[in-house]
Structures are given as C-alpha cells and as structure tokens.
From TrEMBL:
<feature type="domain" description="Alcohol dehydrogenase-like C-terminal">
    <location>
        <begin position="180"/>
        <end position="292"/>
    </location>
</feature>
<protein>
    <submittedName>
        <fullName>Alcohol dehydrogenase catalytic domain-containing protein</fullName>
    </submittedName>
</protein>
<dbReference type="GO" id="GO:0008270">
    <property type="term" value="F:zinc ion binding"/>
</dbReference>
<dbReference type="Pfam" id="PF08240">
    <property type="entry name" value="ADH_N"/>
</dbReference>
<dbReference type="InterPro" id="IPR002328">
    <property type="entry name" value="ADH_Zn_CS"/>
</dbReference>
<keyword id="KW-0560">Oxidoreductase</keyword>
<dbReference type="InterPro" id="IPR013154">
    <property type="entry name" value="ADH-like_N"/>
</dbReference>
<comment type="similarity">
    <text>Belongs to the zinc-containing alcohol dehydrogenase family.</text>
</comment>
<dbReference type="GO" id="GO:0016491">
    <property type="term" value="F:oxidoreductase activity"/>
</dbReference>
<keyword id="KW-0862">Zinc</keyword>
<dbReference type="InterPro" id="IPR036291">
    <property type="entry name" value="NAD(P)-bd_dom_sf"/>
</dbReference>
<feature type="domain" description="Alcohol dehydrogenase-like N-terminal">
    <location>
        <begin position="25"/>
        <end position="137"/>
    </location>
</feature>
<keyword id="KW-0479">Metal-binding</keyword>
<dbReference type="InterPro" id="IPR011032">
    <property type="entry name" value="GroES-like_sf"/>
</dbReference>
<dbReference type="InterPro" id="IPR013149">
    <property type="entry name" value="ADH-like_C"/>
</dbReference>
<dbReference type="Pfam" id="PF00107">
    <property type="entry name" value="ADH_zinc_N"/>
</dbReference>
Length: 347
C-alpha cells in the first residue's frame, strides 16, 4: 500500500510500504477514505531530526472497517469510522473523566507513537479499536465528510480550547492564530455562546472565514501594536479568555499581553518552547491562569457531531484544497507557504 513518510525537514515522500494488517485481537484494519494534513505536521516539517526518520505521517482520518480482531465488539466490516488523533480504551479512569489523551492503557497514545502506522496512507491498523474509533452515520461519499473529519482533531481541538478557557454565553474571547485550529476555536467559542470574539490573524482569506465562523473583530497587527488594539476593543483591560492556537513563543507573549487580570490563557497550539514567562509581571501579578493541552477529541465527538449532521455548523470549510495521495508532499508545501489553510486527502 502507499503511505506518507517524512525523512527530514521539507522532505516528505509517498512510498510503497507493507500492507497494514490486524496484529492484536483489539485492532481494526481501516481503509482510509479521507484524511488530511495538520498544522502540527508542519512542526516536524521544519525541524525534524533526520536521524529519527523516516516517520509515517497522519493522525486524522475517516475510513471503512475492513477487518477486526477477535476481541473487537462494537465494530464490524463495512462500518464508516472516524479516528481521533489519540488512541484510547475509552474506559479507564481518565477516559471516563473525558481526558482520553491521558488514557492509562499500555497501547494508548498518539499516532506518532505507533510504529509503521499513519493516517496519510491507504490503510491503518487501529489499536484499541472499540475505544478509539467512532462510527459515523453517513455514507463514505457524504458531503458531510470534510466536516466530520474535523472531529479527528481540529474541531475537537478548537472546542477543547474554548472549554478549557471557560467560554460560556456572553463571554469575550480573543483567539490568537488564523490557522485551522484558530478558526475552529472561533467556531467553538461562537457555538458555546461567546458574544465578542476577536480574531488575531493577518491572512485576509483566513480571517474572512473566521468572520463567517463568528469572529466579531479581526486584529491584523502583531506585537505591541496588536496587544494595544485588542485592549482597545475589549474595554481597555484585555480579554477575559484568550485561546492560543499557534504554539510559538510570540503567540504566547501575545496571549500574556492581551489577557485581562483574573483571566485565562487556554493553549492548544503544540508549544515549540519549554520555557516561558510565568512570573509576577506576566501571569502571577494579574492572577492569570494557564490552561489547555492536547485535546481529548474522542471525548467531544458525541457532543459535536449532531450540529454537523443537522447542518448547524460546517467546520469542514477549513479545507480549501483537496488532493490524492500523490499530492501530499505538495500539500505540505502549500500549507507551509500559506497557500492552503488545510489540505484534505482522498487516497
Ligand atoms: Zn483510557
């Protein structure tokens, strides 16, 4: 079968690899019908150490169950399923709490921890299939597939940002970052009832989509100028809830700059730093809380799916390009050079 491998920075190749197959009784074999490239895939695309490669890529996909192991109870051949970006048993203490990314099962974890598997391929062996996969009540060629695919990661991640930030009816929210996750954070804040949503981003096509998803204001300026602008828009003291959807240090600094005393910074952009200001002049003095982390998207599927199925929201609008498997290396380039927001892959 064909799959995507990353060899090092900027070096993504499509290669023939051994067919995925059932290895454990709790596995399912899924033929991928839709997958995509993630903004977080661009982090290794910039900085991967080739000594750790090649790495199989992709952690968001929808597909058809082709085979199941003998212990799989809830899925059968022919089911259309969506795979969250974390593997979990959906039954341990943390899963029951809704924190599937901290699942204690020995096979639980992120897709990059599963050797020789990845969603940007023709098929995937899915561990802990009963816990990880969620059946979709549509056909594989449904027009809702792009939106349902966002349940794997970006929509669930935007929702997690909003939830960890405590967004509720009437909230004032600032979203930092106009990538797919930032736009999903806007949509999620709107869905949870936020009244004022300031989107910080400087790519017009993206911030226009952000307005469509519910942003009430767009701030294109960055740094001190951007911070001043957000403070002006939010009554002078800043925003009570800040959703940081980038992961680089300037975005964190921006968040510290625009958050209101007593407010919360909720981070879902994978941090590309391990040291940041948390002292008196940044978080401690103004009583600011820092929240967020990898989204347990499995926990949110049942809550978010109905609004997609009935057409209330269309998160799939973040996909502005579609390619086959051979177009994946070009898709990485297009996303890296900001020509595409997010690339949908139809293997
Ligand atoms: Zn668990």
């Amino acid at each position: 079968m064909r799959a995507t491998l990353m060899y090092g920075p900027g070096d993504v190749r499509i290669e023939d690899v051994p067919d995925a197959r059932i290895e454990l009784p709790t596995d399912a074999l899924v033929r991928v019908t839709a997958s995509c490239i993630c903004g977080s895939d661009l982090h290794p695309y910039h900085s991967m150490d080739p000594a750790h490669g090649p790495a199989r890529m992709g952690h968001e996909f929808i597909g058809v169950v082709e085979d199941v192991g003998s212990d799989v109870a809830t899925l059968r051949r022919g089911d259309l399923v969506v795979a969250p970006f974390a593997i979990s048993d959906n039954s341990c203490g943390f899963c029951v709490e809704g924190l599937h990314t901290s699942c204690t099962h020995e096979q639980a974890g992120f897709w990059d921890g599963v050797p020789d598997q990845g969603g940007q391929s023709e098929a995937v062996r899915v561990p802990l299939a009963d816990g990880t996969l969620v059946k979709l009540p549509v056909a594989e060629d449904s027009a809702l597939i792009p939106s349902l695919l966002t349940l794997s990661d970006v929509f669930g991640t935007g929702h997690h940002a909003a939830k960890c930030g405590g967004v509720t009816r009437g909230s004032t929210v600032t979203v930092i970052g106009d990538g797919a996750v930032g736009l999903m954070a806007v949509l999620s804040a709107k869905r949870l009832g936020a009244e004022r949503i300031v989107l910080m981003g400087r790519h017009r096509d993206r911030t226009d989509l952000g307005r469509r998803f519910g942003a009430t204001d767009v701030v294109a300026e960055r740094g001190e100028e951007g911070i001043e602008r957000v403070r002006e828009l939010t009554g002078g003291h800043g925003s009570g809830i800040v959703l940081e959807a980038v992961g680089h240090m300037p975005a964190y600094e921006q968040a510290v700059g625009v958050v209101r005393p007593g407010g919360v910074i909720s981070r879902v952009g994978v941090p590309q730093y391990s040291r940041a200001r948390v002292g008196f002049t940044s978080l401690f003095g103004p009583n600011v809380r820092l929240a967020g982390g990898p989204a347990p998207t499995r926990a949110y599927v049942e809550e978010l799916m109905p609004d997609i199925l009935d057409g209330t929201i269309e998160p799939g609008l973040v996909f502005d390009a579609v390619t086959g498997i051979d177009g994946i290396p070009g898709g990485y380039r297009d996303m890296d050079e900001r020509r595409s927001i997010k690339v949908l892959v139809r293997p």
